[in-house]
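Subject: MrfA-like Zn-binding domain-containing protein structure
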Amino acid sequence: MTVQPPPVGIAGDQVLLPANEPLDPLGDAERVSTEGSKRNFARVGSGRPSSLIFTYGPGAIMDLPQFTIMPAGLDDWDRIWRRRDGIPRIHAPRLLEVVRLMLGPQVEQLRPFPWQPAPNTRSREGADLGVPARVFPQWLRCTGCDLLGPLPKFDYRNTHPYRADEARFEHANCRGRAAARGVGRGAATLSGARRTAVAARYLLVCADGHVDEFPYQLWVHRGQPCEKAEAPVLRMTDSTAGRGSAVITCDSCTLRRGMNEALGELGRLKLPRCRGRHPHLDSFNPAGCDNETRLMLVGASNLWFAATQSVIVMPQTKAEAVDDLADRIRIELADELDDYRANPRLVRGRLKQTIDISEVSDAELEELLARASAPVMAEDERRARQEKWSPVDLLVPEWRYLQREPLGAQHDDPSGLMLSTRPLGRSMPTGVARVLAVDKLRKVNALFGFTRIDELDRVNDLGSRLVPLARARPTWTVATEDRGEGVFLQFDEPSVAQWEAEIADSEIWHAHREAHWRNYRNRMSETAKSVDPDERLPPPRYWLLHTFAHLLIRGMAMECGYSAASLSERIYSWPGVGDREPAAGVLICTTASDSDGTLGGLVALSQPDRLARVVETALHRARRCSSDPVCASRTPRDPEDFLHGAACHCCAMASETSCERANRFLDRRFVIDLPGSSLGFFK
């Protein structure tokens, strides 16, 4: 069953917002209808939950059929949520704790997107929900005459309640390119027509995540006002000369200037400094910004990188359950906590409709109230913990739970996890020690910010480059809840430890380590000066498991009925440190956010002999690559700084949706022996 994705809404009649005026797309549409005007429907498009959190979240630019929009910050989402008596929440305490570490202890909940399914295609139920968005960029170009101007020069049309794709901006009296230039037969007498206007494609961005409209008027006049008109008429025409960029022309004074002058290192010197603008928040950075700006296209893939974390929801331990219940009580009682703390009986009556504490004794309830009343984490403590925090901290509880043997053939749990034990196939390669069939799982993903130009881990987690999702510190953030299936393979730890010790002294590993040093120096932010690059380099066992996971995804995609892009990896790989036991395992899973689960094709591969055959075949195919011998012998040498070895798109690299590390830290030589190398784990 396919579920209609959540809608994205904008205000059709109010696209240029005055300063400090709240964004309320659906309210604007209702006001237009009440005034008796022709109905402008606020809904302009739709997107799947996974795309709205990983590709088109707040601050990103979403390309609709006729124009582009930018989802607004979380402040504006609250006006949408207030249209409902209750706000749904996604329960994932471990993930919520990490979000609080990133955004502050004031975060109380994870929320899904504001959406509900309609019972039929003609129903308007749920039409009062949607993700609010602003039109951005707000300079448009007429497709008929190349007129370039801000939104007031164009008319907005969106009158069909069931055809959001027909929403558009139009140039009401377009006479075409010939008339605009005053050439051609009868150019001056051509009657006007309505032509669609599309987004002007250039933007200015800076390393701290600000984005702004390109100043076309100042650009064509080289920083000066037009000598002939206070509001000059501009046009954007395409040029096939040089680097094939656009040319901006002023009809009022006939000045012209090509956009190719803004490209490259020399072009940056001609661009204005950053103004610190955050269009998704309708604000500017109070502290200002004087960074250099870069020219970027509207559809550039490096315009928006989501900063997210995810967890596989596992059953809670007793201690985790107590902490979770205390936290829920603290949030529910809020300012009333001190008043109720002295009287547990009143607490039971107060929480009766929201939190089930019927099985909690009075003594336990008093302890819960004491925990709920404990001081929240201080800001200095939060920042200190944030600096030491690693994504591995999210994986450790999952790994520890996966070490337990399931209670039955199909052990189901209220958390949404169902595990089954599988014996090893007769031909399973030595080194794989254990297999679990993950019949059901629930994965929760939370968004806590974003970056531009480069990913968060590529700028060394520099706080100033993480763009906020709200004007003030948010009390919630958006999350998605995925359900699916998978297969878990655990490696033999003694074998992995022995292999890892041998690899650590090899020339190939030293080459990868030095390449990582060069990569760090070349690409990371200024905070790299105080961080040892070796702390960010995954150990050899991670390279082994990561490469093995990619090979397995390719092999499974040929057997399970899902495409390789639908499969994703979750790598459990770290050496033992302190009280943290070593880990070496891979979870290959597929999940979907808009259905109750998947079809069972992947978990069916966990059958012993079938899985053994898939693993054998994947390892056999890895021995040959169509780019060999170049691929098989690829080793980074100074000044090269790439973070992979014998791996390419022909043999081991996977799609962005499958890989958790953007196809870095891969080398087939660590998995199997290749010509000229005997470092493979599987002999």
